[in-house]
Write the structure tokens for this entry.
Amino acid sequence: MGKLRVLSVFGTRPEAIKMCPLVKELGTRPGIESLCCVTAQHRQMLDAVLEVFRLKPDWDLDIMTPRQTLSGITSKCLLGMDEAIAALKPDLILVHGDTSTTFAGALSAFYHQIPVGHVEAGLRTYDKYSPFPEEMNRVLVSGIADLFFCPTAGNRENLAREGHTGDNIFVTGNTVIDALKTTVREDYCFETDELNRLPYKDKKVLLVTCHRRENYGEPMKNIMLALRQIAEDHPDVELVYPVHLSPVVRESVDQYLRGAPRVHLIDPLPAGEMHNLMARCCLVLTDSGGLQEEAPALGKPVLVLRRETERPEAVAAGTVKLAGVVQDDIVTMAERLITDKSAYQKMAHAVNPYGDGHACRRIADAIEWRFGLREERPADYET
Ligand code: UD1
Ligand code: UDP
């Protein structure tokens, strides 16, 4: 019998950061041929990750266009996947999380009657339009998937409530923690010189990111004005913001935040730079999913610039708080952490609800077990 051909499909920066370690782990298994197809829903931000992990895709759909629409991404991915599947003939397709690439990758696999493994399965807000379109993407992928790799037991419970209860559901931890273990180093020296010069010890370095579609418009304006106010009112704060390449985000940043004192607006950072900056900063303000998982593992408090989160585990552990999208609320919550040492210390403890760094091994073991290449089902990850 030939090797099991496992095709990992991804296209955006976060999917790449979370899937590259898995593609590599699968490549170490003697019974598996690990292949990788990128949709390039992101181009520069994807390529930067591929470079960090030294991964060369077997297929590249190269679909990105400026200001792309959801239907544009989905339809181009579907057409491109037809060709990739015909050429690479996978036995299993892996998709990750909740992007348009994820949904189109899973739907395409279904059209070709190829089993689907969903990595980072079972996250939910139960709000159809928030995060948009991610909540619906992951619900739809759950309807298609054959194997579910849940980061946490809570994610498995969400799936159980929707009737997914078989032995095809695995709790593995999140592969982002595997990635973090390869990138963060105490003696790390930044390639971006500006980051080497930041006063990590003498001042409070706040790390910011913001990009979500449901925050476009008024919420993003409120967030930018809140960041401006925080920087203006606190001379002991330096705010570092690697700005997403989305033109919608850049317009908002330019209109409401650029020019504020002590605000460093920089280009998106390579993953290694970002992870090490996070490890050295004081506080994270973000609407990102990935940062909500990474920062707690590094003991950094997070204020989430959204109304809700599908990642309640770190909120329960006390390192993450929802700040919402109202200017005054964000300013009040950030100021408390900047000025009140004990409030800060209460949030600044390292917790690892999202993984122990061995998620890729568990997922690869689960795939081997499911396809008869291993006798024992891997044990679930327990926090
Ligand atoms: C996408 C995902 C979102 C994920 C985010 C991670 C969807 C619908 N959205 O949102 O779930 O959280 O990625 O960052 O799947 N651009 C570039 N170069 C790049 C990347 C983006 O120029 O390398 C610009 C392009 O103009 C592009 C725009 O950003 O059209 C938006 O990219 P898109 O993938 O549609 O949306 P994101 O907000 O990045
Ligand atoms: N990230 C990065 N460079 C940046 C901003 C983010 O490498 O300039 C990483 C971050 O550490 C995390 C992932 O990108 O691993 C999160 O991606 P993003 O916020 O774009 O998407 P989300 O997680 O919200 O889907």
About this structure: The chain has a mean pLDDT of 97.
